[in-house]
UniProtKB/TrEMBL annotation:
One of its GO terms (biological process) is tetrahydrobiopterin biosynthetic process. One of its GO terms (cellular component) is cytoplasm. The lineage of its organism: Bacteria, Pseudomonadati, Gemmatimonadota, Longimicrobiia, Longimicrobiales. Homopolymer. Pfam families: GTP_cyclohydroI. NCBIfam families: folE, PRK09347.1-2, PRK09347.1-3. It is an enzyme of class 3 (hydrolase). This is GTP cyclohydrolase 1. Keywords: GTP-binding, Hydrolase, Metal-binding, Nucleotide-binding, One-carbon metabolism, Zinc. Belongs to the GTP cyclohydrolase I family.
Amino acid sequence: MADGTEQGGVTGEIAPLVRGILAGLGENPEREGLLKTPERVEKSLRFLTHGYGLTVQDAIGDALFEEDHHNMVIVRDIEMYSMCEHHMLPFFGKVHVAYIPNGRIVGLSKLPRVVEIFARRLQVQERLTEQVASALMDVLEPQGVGVVVEAAHLCMMMRGVEKQNSKTVTSAMKGVFLDDRATREEFLRLL
Ligand SMILES: Nc1nc2c(ncn2[C@@H]2O[C@H](COP(=O)(O)OP(=O)(O)OP(=O)(O)O)[C@@H](O)[C@H]2O)c(=O)[nH]1
Ligand SMILES: [Zn+2]
C-alpha cells in the first residue's frame, strides 16, 4: 500500500538461513554484493508477509457509517501482490470487491486494506479470494459480498509450465451475490 514502507522487525531469524541458501547456490555470501543480502531478504520477506500481523478489525477501525444505501458499491482494480505458498514466488494482479450494504457502509479505503491483510502472506489465490469475501461478510454484515481476483503467477511464468499470458480468475460470492443471479450478473457486468 502507498504507506507500506518495509516494516516488520528484522529479528535476525531469517538472515542466517538466507546466507545458507546463498552458499547452497554455490555463491560466496562474503563477496561485497551479497554481504547485506541476507538482512535485505529478511526485511523484504517480513514486509511481503506483514498481513499475518494485521486484523480486519484493526484495518476497518470505526470507519463504519450508518447509511440507508441499498445499492451495490464496487471498488475495482485494486492492485494486489501476494506470494504463492508452493514456490514462494509472487502472484499479482487485480482484486474487485463489491458489497450491498444493509444499513451501514464502510470507508472505501478499508476495502483495499482488507485485501492487503490477506494478500500479504503466503497464499493460494482461491483462499485469498474467499478470505476477503468472508471477512467483509463478518464485519459489514451486508446483504452480500462479491470478490473477483485476476492474477498472474510468476511460478507459472518464469519457471514450471512457463506460460506468459495466462491469467487465473477466482471469485467468491456471498449472500445476495450467491443467491440472486441478477445481482451477480450486475457485478460481473460492471467489472
Ligand atoms: N490452486 C492454486 N495452485 C497454485 C497457486 N499458486 C501456485 N499453484 C500451483 O501449485 C502447484 C504445485 O504443484 P506441484 O506439482 O506440487 O509443484 P511443481 O512440481 O513445482 O509444479 P509445476 O509448477 O507444475 O512445475 C502448481 O500446479 C502451481 O501452479 C494458487 O494460488 N492456487
Ligand atoms: Zn507457485
